[in-house]
Amino acid sequence: MMHSKVKTKGWHHIVDTMRPLTSQSVVTPAFRAQRFFHFPCVRRPSFIITQQFAMKRSAATASLKTGTQIPKKSRTSKPSISVPEYHSTPSKKDSNGEIIWPAPKSQIEVARNFIRECVAASQPILIVPDKDADGLTSGAILRKTLILLGLDPELISVYVLKKGRNIHDDESRTAMTSYKPAFIFVLDQGSRESPPLIDEPHRGLVIDHHHAEEKDHPKDAAFVTACNSTPVATSSLLTYLICRDLHSEVETTCDWLCAMGTHGDLGNTLKWEPPFPDMKATFKMYTKKAINDAVSLINAPRRTATYNVPGAWEALIAVSTPKDLLKDKTLLAARAEVNAEVERCTHTAPKFSSDGRIAVFRINSEAQVHPVIATRWAGHLRSATLEVILVANEGYLPGMVNFSCRIPRCARAKDPPVNIIEILREVASRAKDPTLRERLGESFARGHKEASGGIVPKAEFEEFVEVLEVGKKGSGSPQKLQNKTPKQGNTLLNYFAKS
């Protein structure tokens, strides 16, 4: 086909001088657009095609002839960030060359023997699981295992800590003592050096995966921890792998609980590849969607202002599949409440430390939405210097600030890796008053290297923020917020459906 180029009043057109195109419907919209916007025409040719349209069609035709596709240009010039898959984190090995996973073998055997002796003793048992999906499923796996091994369910009690409490405070220790347990299992609560779990005679076992030093466990309690065995397993996965070899039915009755708890902590994009166990049969039977939806529902009550974690526990142990949880009206109402509160609080603008390493968001909510907001912003905020997202909630507990920290996606591939716990401790050590670190308390900089936080008095938190020089521009401060508040239509409001 031949064309002649005509220039009229600064506009270029390509005029077909031989015959019309075979597809009139393709060109008509362009012609109508020219008339609507008063594009100039010449001598009423059969078809008028803008130069831009002609070039696009020419390129498309060329690609069809050659059988190759023309790659689309990226809308952004941002460099892609490659984050290693979680399961691919190198594992430590023992002297025999075997990987140490999910925890040291000696600790795993101690835990298994403890469970066997517990069943054989046939005495009152107390399970103290954490409030989230990982903790609650850990408790459910252990409870099911004890029953499979022959323990009378009437001998098993469960205590869920009250809002803002931990296993070491006086109120919790008194409550645990009231059950008069001979054996106590503490699951996913974190661990620190402390007096015995209760003052009365008992035997205790801590199963955990949070960061801990060798001495960080209650006095006289046995412990098994995954924190030093990379890739770090969740508490539910660790509990499942401890219990799986104790009874043949643990695998078929508790596998979905393990998947729920693990996705609750590590996310639903986790690849179940070695050293993680093969869960293909589990996902085929129950589906990933049902498991992930169940995670969001079980996680919701602990985030509400009413903190109905006992209700979440009762719902979990009453079902035999994750799909059975999806119609629970109490859980659905809790999730709706939390989603609304996340939407209300998430638009808070960040302020940056003077060196640009820490972005600080401050909210006021009676709900535990600060971890959710930290997680969501970690995927949106970008800067060459940014290493920590910190969301501080001044309304969760009277007189206290509860804060959660996450590593932004843009910093997850740094070498050496970002260690939030070390960063928080280093900031506290730079305070003018050298007593600040001690006054921040034992609940400061707890959790994981990648996801930490704390519960600290308001006055001490203000001192901590003062060290950061929040709002003061320094050489490392981000120049701008490259991704503004995330759109809520398909992100935050759907957080619990995807987590």
Automatic annotation (TrEMBL):
<dbReference type="Pfam" id="PF01368">
    <property type="entry name" value="DHH"/>
</dbReference>
<feature type="region of interest" description="Disordered">
    <location>
        <begin position="64"/>
        <end position="98"/>
    </location>
</feature>
<feature type="domain" description="DDH">
    <location>
        <begin position="125"/>
        <end position="248"/>
    </location>
</feature>
<dbReference type="InterPro" id="IPR001667">
    <property type="entry name" value="DDH_dom"/>
</dbReference>
<dbReference type="InterPro" id="IPR038763">
    <property type="entry name" value="DHH_sf"/>
</dbReference>
<protein>
    <submittedName>
        <fullName>DHH family protein</fullName>
    </submittedName>
</protein>
<dbReference type="GO" id="GO:0004527">
    <property type="term" value="F:exonuclease activity"/>
</dbReference>
<dbReference type="InterPro" id="IPR051673">
    <property type="entry name" value="SSDNA_exonuclease_RecJ"/>
</dbReference>
